[in-house]
């Protein structure tokens, strides 16, 4: 019985080794998400102090504009209806995150720059009304970063080719049918804002 257990143990040991040193190894997918983080130290005490209560107010309007087929934002404003706006104190860590995101983040290459869990803890949140308006009361003088994600649907029409007709004289007519389409979008809207003195009301457009 002991001999049998010993043989089984050897078999599993050899099997596990064979998996590691197999002749064929599956390569990693090229579209694997690459997560990047700032290398600057995050000072939680500094962030906490920056979010302490003050007497100033930040009032804003969050909106975007529909994108054209060339990627340009055109047309009327689309106001953020009941979305969450997040406020972060501007620290060396956040500045590093923002710079790194501009340099490295790419949807095409699937690279994303994240805040650490500890840094993300130090934030304030507000919900917009149907006109995109939001308020952060009780703010201290200092610099802040605001961010939100605004989803909307772009509707349009196009002419779809349905066939060609010919007449008795050799001419032809192409026929089209108008069809509707809709495309969902989500825009990241953000802005930096500075409160310069106690008691003031700072207004900002978040787009």
Structure description:
Keywords: Signal. This is Carboxypeptidase regulatory-like domain-containing protein. It is built from four helices and ten strands. It is an alpha+beta fold and 207 residues long. The chain has a domain of 142 residues: Immunoglobulin-like (Sandwich). Strands 2, 3, 7 and 10 form a four-stranded mixed β-sheet that branches. A four-stranded antiparallel β-sheet has the order 6-4-8-9, with no helix packed on it. The chain has a two-stranded parallel ribbon with strand order 1-5. A hairpin with a 5-residue loop joins strand 2 and strand 3. The radius of gyration is 28 Å and the shape is flat. 16% of the residues are buried. The model has no long low-confidence stretch (mean pLDDT 85).
């Amino acid at each position: 019985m002991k001999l049998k257990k010993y043989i089984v143990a050897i078999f599993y040991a050899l099997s596990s080794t064979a998996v590691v040193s197999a002749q064929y190894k599956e390569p990693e997918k090229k579209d694997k998400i690459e997560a990047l983080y700032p290398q600057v130290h995050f000072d939680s005490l500094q962030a906490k102090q920056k979010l302490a209560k003050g007497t100033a107010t930040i009032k804003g309007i969050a909106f975007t504009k529909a994108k054209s087929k060339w990627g340009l934002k055109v047309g009327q404003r689309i106001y953020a209806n009941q979305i969450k706006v997040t406020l972060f104190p501007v620290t060396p860590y956040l500045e590093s995150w923002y710079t790194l995101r501009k340099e490295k983040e790419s949807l095409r290459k699937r690279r994303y720059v994240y805040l650490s869990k500890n840094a993300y803890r130090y934030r304030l949140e507000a919900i917009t009304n149907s006109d995109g308006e939001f308020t952060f009361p009780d703010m201290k003088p200092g610099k802040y970063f605001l961010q939100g994600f605004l989803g909307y649907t772009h509707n349009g029409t196009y002419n779809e080719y349905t066939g060609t007709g010919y007449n008795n004289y050799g001419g032809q007519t192409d026929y089209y049918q108008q069809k509707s389409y809709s495309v969902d979008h989500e825009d990241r809207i953000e802005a930096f804002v500075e409160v310069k003195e106690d008691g003031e009301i700072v207004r900002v457009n978040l787009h």
